[in-house]
Amino acid sequence: MAEEHKHLIIRAEVKNPPVDPIWATNWLEHVVKKIGMKILMGPYAKYCPVPGNAGLTAVVIIETSHCVMHVWDEGEIGEIQLDVYTCSALNPQDIFDELEQFGLQKLEYKYLNRDKGLREVTL
Description:
CATH class: Alpha Beta
Helix content: 10-25%
Radius of gyration: 14 Å
Order of helices and strands: EHEEEEHEE
CATH topology: S-adenosylmethionine decarboxylase
Distance between the termini: 25 Å
Strand order of the largest sheet: 2-3-4-5-1-6-7
Largest sheet: 7 strands, antiparallel
């Protein structure tokens, strides 16, 4: 079993939320490469047109776990929730930098070390 278990949970408010599934799969591929991980399956993305829940969901399975992005695009400010879990080292700033392209207005996150318990990691 891997010794590191890092889990980054992000909630971001953005001006320009992504809505195109093809674009989202390309973005996830780029992010996975940027953080030094390898794709095992996917990425996959689908847009949900249901009012009140309209938005995009994208997922990629990586050799060390997964990345999942949920986007809600209704309203003036969109919301992105991103979950990155890996059994190896992770630099959260790499992901924060990639969120800037969406017109980042607010960023909240929890960074956990899940190796033994759920200890929050401070940057």
